[in-house]
């Protein structure tokens, strides 16, 4: 806030300096006003020059600036892009930067705005149209109403109404509170419905290409298929919301186009060494769905599980791919018992990976209890991970409004499967079973691989043990660990992770040295290349120590981080629930300690 300056409170010298500055400022302002006045007068003169007089006669075609006559073929003039007037060639000004031209009036008007600074006020008024306006009482009321509508939607429960405890005025006030609460709830429902419609519309616009390969690989027809992903995402949201109005508004969004749950990308046939089961029919490397977690969260219906499924399993060592040939099903249960309807399809997972990236699906067969698929689903799996994976083959019914019904499943531990046996590649019948509550805990789970490099750094000229005092040698060692990257991690539904690595070295005296890597966001196969350094350790201490490495997915909105997997090295190596990995981790730890000052590359299996 500006204050009035009293010159009498200053000394004479100070007063002279202030007055001198004020006079100079007044002179500068007057000079600037004179300069602006000359620029505007010159612009006005150009406009008057082009004005037509009633006392003179003009031809139909003439220059809008100098009033010269324009010809039919030569000197016809051109239309200015700024004012849309036709001007001759002498009344144009060419702009070098934009490689365009303007008439003299438009150019001078632009020049005046630049030199006087009027362009700044025009741009400010354009970006902030309400700036400088006087606030009215109506605007204040609207702002207060908007603030009230943003208050917490669910207020505390009001006390029970009692006539003896409140007068007529308190009744009216309480009634007003109830009306405000109902209004805020209506606003909440409207905003949630709008957001769900936007989500459904944006996801329905995604498309994927589907290429079909028949028996002859040369006959290939490619076409595009509309892809909808909104069914699963909104099913989860609608099940969580308990308001029927939200569900009604969403189901009315697009009832004519149910989403297609099958998204495939065909792959060429494999080598001729495969059995006839895998060489015939259509071959598919099924694409994953972005939102594939609704059925795994229990958002589905159950039917009486009956019937069998026929499929075959083959593993190609050259391409490191696991192929599941889905043949046919028989005697399935009805997905909708009242309508006597069944639209079955098959979905597979390689457990424990239940992410959308690890899901494969077949086409939907309409109105049949004995569907025939003849499709091959592929997974890229390293041979070392097969022993820790389980194949889950489940049959589902696609109902109206993308509602899923569980028809049965088969779970096969791949550790017990003989891939070298040729008879094991033949198609077999498996009875469908109900969904198990808990899977076997004694089967080790593979949650990916972590690539690291380790080195024990010892002094260049270590002293002899008899010359060194006890405990001094422990301060000379250094353990260096480089976390390179990870792969095959259980990703989120969108196929990404915000992952980081934690390291904990537990010494024999139960002292723990903890380190942490930076977070790599939105990467399914992160590559940290981050170094962990543990100082003040010796080889004798490390032989009795344990190094634990854990991979985490950073959560959002204050939630707890999700553990993706862990691996241990040292005397107590081996992850919990996986005793077979203990001997391998001890062997790798021994290699690091037995070769000091040398890097040792390791690939740790996360459990």
Show the helix and strand layout.
Layout (H helix, E strand, L loop, with lengths): L11 H38 L28 E2 L6 E2 L4 E4 L4 E4 H13 L1 H10 L9 H13 L18 H37 L2 E7 L6 E7 L3 H11 L3 H8 L12 E2 L10 H4 L2 E2 L1 E2 L14 E2 L5 E9 L4 E10 L13 E8 L8 E2 L10 E9 L2 H4 L3 E9 L5 E10 L14 E4 L17 E9 L20 E10 L11 E8 L5 E5 L13 E6 L3 H4 L3 E8 L8 E9 L9 H15 L5 E6 L2
Q: Key terms for this structure?
A:
607 residues; alpha+beta; Herpes Virus-1; Immunoglobulin-like; 5-stranded mixed β-sheet; 11 helices; 26 strands; 26% helix; extended
If you had to describe this structure to a student in words, what would you say it looks like?
Keywords: Membrane, Repeat. Pfam families: C2 (PF00168), FYVE_2 (PF02318). Residues 221-279 are annotated as: Disordered. Residues 305-430, 458-590 form the C2 domain. The protein has 607 residues and is of the alpha+beta class. 26% of the residues lie in helices and 26% in strands. It is built from eleven helices and 26 strands. It has helices at 12-49, 104-116, 118-127, 137-149, 168-204, 230-240, 244-251, 276-279, 383-386, 539-542, 580-594, and strands spanning 78-79, 86-87, 92-95, 100-103, 207-213, 220-226, 264-265, 282-283, 285-286, 301-302, 308-316, 321-330, 344-351, 360-361, 372-380, 390-398, 404-413, 428-431, 449-457, 478-487, 499-506, 512-516, 530-535, 546-553, 562-570, 600-605. Helix 1 (12-49) packs antiparallel against helix 2 (104-116) and helix 5 (168-204) runs parallel beside helix 7 (244-251). The radius of gyration is 39 Å and the shape is extended. Mean pLDDT is 72; it is low at 151-172, 199-274, 283-288, 290-294, 439-443 and 465-475.
């Amino acid at each position: 806030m500006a204050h009035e300056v009293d010159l009498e409170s200053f000394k004479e010298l100070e007063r002279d300096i202030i007055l001198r500055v004020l006079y100079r400022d007044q002179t500068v302002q007057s000079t600037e006003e004179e300069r602006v006045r000359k620029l505007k007068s010159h612009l006005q003169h150009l406009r008057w020059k082009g004005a037509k007089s009633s006392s003179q006669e003009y031809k139909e075609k003439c220059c809008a600036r100098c009033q010269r006559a324009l010809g039919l073929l030569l000197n016809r003039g051109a239309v200015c892009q700024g004012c849309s007037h036709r001007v001759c060639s002498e009344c144009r000004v060419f702009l070098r930067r934009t490689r365009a031209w303007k008439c003299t009036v438009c150019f001078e008007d632009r020049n005046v705005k630049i030199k006087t600074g009027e362009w700044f006020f025009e741009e400010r008024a354009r970006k902030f149209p309400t700036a400088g306006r006087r606030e009215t009482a109506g605007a204040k009321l609207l702002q207060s109403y908007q603030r009230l509508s943003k208050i917490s939607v669910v207020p505390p429960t009001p006390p029970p109404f009692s006539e003896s405890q409140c007068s007529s005025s308190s009744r009216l006030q309480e009634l007003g509170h109830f009306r405000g609460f109902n209004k805020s709830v209506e606003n909440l429902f409207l905003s949630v419905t709008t957001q769900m419609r936007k989500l459904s519309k944006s996801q329905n616009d995604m498309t994927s290409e589907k290429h079909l390969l028949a028996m002859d690989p040369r006959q290939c027809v490619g076409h595009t298929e509309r892809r909808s992903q909104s069914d699963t995402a909104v099913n989860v949201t609608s099940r969580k919301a308990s308001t029927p109005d939200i569900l009604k508004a969403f189901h009315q969004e697009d009832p004519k186009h149910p989403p297609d749950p099958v998204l495939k990308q065909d792959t060429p046939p494999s080598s001729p060494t495969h059995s006839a089961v895998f060489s015939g029919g259509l071959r598919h490397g099924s694409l994953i769905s972005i939102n594939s977690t609704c059925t795994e969260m229990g958002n589905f219906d159950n039917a009486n599980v009956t019937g069998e499924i026929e499929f075959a399993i083959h593993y190609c060592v050259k391409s490191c791919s696991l192929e599941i040939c889905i043949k046919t099903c028989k005697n399935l249960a009805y997905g909708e018992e009242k309508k006597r309807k069944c639209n079955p399809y098959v979905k597979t997972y390689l457990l424990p990976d239940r992410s959308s990236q690890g899901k494969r699906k077949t086409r939907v067969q309409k109105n049949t209890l004995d569907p025939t698929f003849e499709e091959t689903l592929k997974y890229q799996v390293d041979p070392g991970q097969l022993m820790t994976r389980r194949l889950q083959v489940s049959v589902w019914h696609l109902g109206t409004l993308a509602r899923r019904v569980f028809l049965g499943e088969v779970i096969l531990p791949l550790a017990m499967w003989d891939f070298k046996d040729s008879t094991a590649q033949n198609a077999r019948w498996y009875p469908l079973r109900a969904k198990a509550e808990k899977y076997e805990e004694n089967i080790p789970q593979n949650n990916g691989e972590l690539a690291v490099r380790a080195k024990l750094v010892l002094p260049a000229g270590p002293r002899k043990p008899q010359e060194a005092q006890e405990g001094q040698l422990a301060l000379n060692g250094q353990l260096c660990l480089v976390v390179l990257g990870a792969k095959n991690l259980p990703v989120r539904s969108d196929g990404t992770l915000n992952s980081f690595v934690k390291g904990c070295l537990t010494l024999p005296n139960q002292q723990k040295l903890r380190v942490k890597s930076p977070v790599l966001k939105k990467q399914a196969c992160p590559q940290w290349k981050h170094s962990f350094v543990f100082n003040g350790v010796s080889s004798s201490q490390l032989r009795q120590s344990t190094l634990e490495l854990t991979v985490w997915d950073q959560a959002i909105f204050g939630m707890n981080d999700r553990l993706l997997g862990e691996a241990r090295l040292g005397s107590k190596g081996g992850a919990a629930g996986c005793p077979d990995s203990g001997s391998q981790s001890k062997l790798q730890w021994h290699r690091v300690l037995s070769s000091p000052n040398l890097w040792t590359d390791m690939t740790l299996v996360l459990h």
